[in-house]
Sequence to fold (373 residues):
Amino acid sequence: MAAPFDVVVSGHLCLDLIPQMGNVAPPSLALPGRLLEVGAMQMATGGPVSNAGLALHRLGVRVGLMSRVGDDWLGQATIDYLRQRDPALCSLITVQAGEPSSYSVVLAPGGADRTFLHCTGTNSTFNAESVDYDLLRGTKLFHLGYPPLLPGLLVNDGEGLSTIFRRVKPLGVVTSMDMVVPDPDGTGRANWKTILQKTLPYVDIFLPSIDEILFMLRRDDWQHWQGDTLRHISAAYLNDLADELLSMGAVVVGFKLAEYGLYIRTAPAEAFARLAVLGLRVEEWANVTLWQPAFLVEVRGTTGAGDSAYAGFLTALLNQQSPADALRWACAVGACNVEAVDSNSGVQDLPTTLARLSAGWAVRTESLRGFRT
Fold:
């Protein structure tokens, strides 16, 4: 019997509370004792299980969401929100008695990037036993998101994290992992280079943002460039960084570059045997280095943009697209996402997205040194 899902997305799940703050000047948030009038509160599920999962669902992928919520009102609201999209999405979510659910308050004052007030909740006890491995049999792709917000996976230099991927990989499933910038005073203190060295031999696809990977492997550069990273990187810098990750064991690595688009670099042909279930044309995918500029849109919000772009990339893999088209699909889905304030409502179905691409969608003019488009 065929597996019910082509993709299972696991890991971090929360409820996002997003007050409308376009009228709030960013400096005013630093002034104590002030009452700031804001607009209506938007509520949406957040984290990669929701952001990438719902984007995959909207793109027509059979996706299951494997995560945990508490037995409180926030947990029920999380499940209800997902159930409204499709009851099947909730079939792999478990309720943890006596644990608080995870939530984030997303502060996005006019003209400024987002600030998150986050409660880890049930994500703090997510561990290697939180994944139901039997349910993954027959699934094509397993995607786990935000290990820095799953502290139970990081004990003993990420033993729980590497255990998950070591147990999934023998099932014949393609594995994928996404990140988030760790809290420098929390999980940021973990030895991230060691964690990646232990985990990436079992991870096929790894597309963190440039800031996430700089924090983990190039901390001095991250600290020195913080707030201006994209204007310091070049093709040579990204190639060197990607080669380090490929040497750790991944097959397809890349970096989400926000308004600069998406970059990937891939391993030699023999490594693609690990991705055989996807039926990719290995001669197209092996030993490539590509960069796709971001598409031109009016940005209304950036919550979930990276997760949506990742979902676009995975959808392209499931549809056996070329590397260049996979990058285009990823950047297109990410661009649709930022046209809405919340983490998912901007994402369109696949035919609509591909129609925008076919119509000659213009790209942004930012130039990445050393690349030609």
Summary: The two ends are 45 Å apart (CA to CA). The domain at 7-25+39-358 is CATH 3.40.1190.20 (UDP-N-acetylmuramoyl-L-alanine:D-glutamate ligase). The mean pLDDT is 94. The longest strand covers residues 14-19.
